[in-house]
Specification:
Blueprint lengths: L6 H11 L6 E7 L5 H12 L2 E4 H10 L5 H9 L6 H15 L3 E5 L5 H11 L5 E6 L2 H9 L10 H24 L3 E5 L4 H12 L8
Parallel strand pairs: 1-3, 1-4, 2-3, 4-5
Helix pairs in contact: 2-9, 3-4, 5-6
The structure holds adenosine-5'-diphosphate (ADP), deoxycytidine diphosphate (YYY) and magnesium ion.
């Protein structure tokens, strides 16, 4: 009698022990105003990804009246990078809430601390890193005409953001370059032309000939 075992609970236990499949993540990097957000909007319409902009999540956190709001607002105004712990929590929550398993993470990781902490906390490595390459004069022109009322789209903060990009974000791009993951896109061209190059990255090789 005691040897009769119901198989159902054993199966359930095995399933809960099985490792959950890791999501597919593409990091979208590039200087301020290089067109990350614009191209992400195009990508999600065509390729089934969910777009998570680290900057948008941080701005929503300020608006929500969170206890971190003032700190985040001050850092954004100064063009500085918010501590990884805060940004990663917001990204993780958004990933869980989306119920998708394919994410475009835009504007993250922006420094070595962002990169290492995300990998340590989530265990996720990006499949690909898109890098939008654009010269500063063009990025400055775009940011000054973005007209979204952002506290950081003024010439003083823009200069600080450019410096942080060169000092802290470019090393992250170089790290992924050394791993062969970077797809560099010439982002100084018109939006449609940039998207033509982006599409190639997301189109499986055997479909490219069509
Ligand atoms: N290829 C492009 N050519 C001209 N303007 C662009 C291009 N891509 C984006 N923009 C405009 O430049 C501004 C910054 O673009 P955005 O996508 O917000 O960049 P990022 O997210 O990298 O800061 C926006 O006003 C956008 O409409
Ligand atoms: N990983 C990130 C991303 C953005 N931030 C902060 C600091 C950035 O200057 C601002 C704005 O980022 P956002 O990606 O929206 O800016 P751009 O689209 O590049 O113009 O947010 C951050 O602290 N950490
Ligand atoms: Mg953006």
């Amino acid at each position: 009698m005691g040897t009769v075992v119901d198989a159902a609970p054993i199966k359930a236990t095995n399933e809960s022990l099985a490792e959950k499949k890791k999501p597919t993540v593409v990091f979208v990097l590039g200087g301020p105003g290089s067109g990350k957000g614009t191209q992400c909007s195009n990508i999600i319409e065509n390729f089934g990804y969910t777009h998570l902009s680290a900057g948008d999540l941080l701005r929503a956190e300020i608006k929500s009246g969170s206890e971190n709001g003032t700190m985040i607002q001050n850092m954004i105004k100064e063009g500085k990078i918010v501590p990884s712990e805060v940004t990663i929590k917001l990204l993780q929550r958004a990933m869980e809430e989306s119920h998708n398993d394919k994410f475009l993470i835009d504007g993250f990781p922006r420094n070595e601390e962002n990169r290492a902490a995300f990998e340590a906390v989530t265990g996720i490595e990006p499949s690909v890193v898109l890098f939008f390459d654009c010269h500063e004069k063009e990025m400055e022109r775009r940011l000054l005409s973005r007209n979204e009322g952002r506290v950081d789209d003024n010439i003083e903060t823009i200069r600080k953001r450019f410096r942080v990009f060169l000092e802290s974000s470019i090393p992250v791009v170089e790290y992924y370059e050394s791993k062969g993951k970077v797809r560099k896109i010439d982002a100084a061209r018109p939006i449609e032309e940039v998207f033509e190059s982006v599409k190639v990255v997301f189109t499986p090789k055997n479909e490219k000939a069509n």
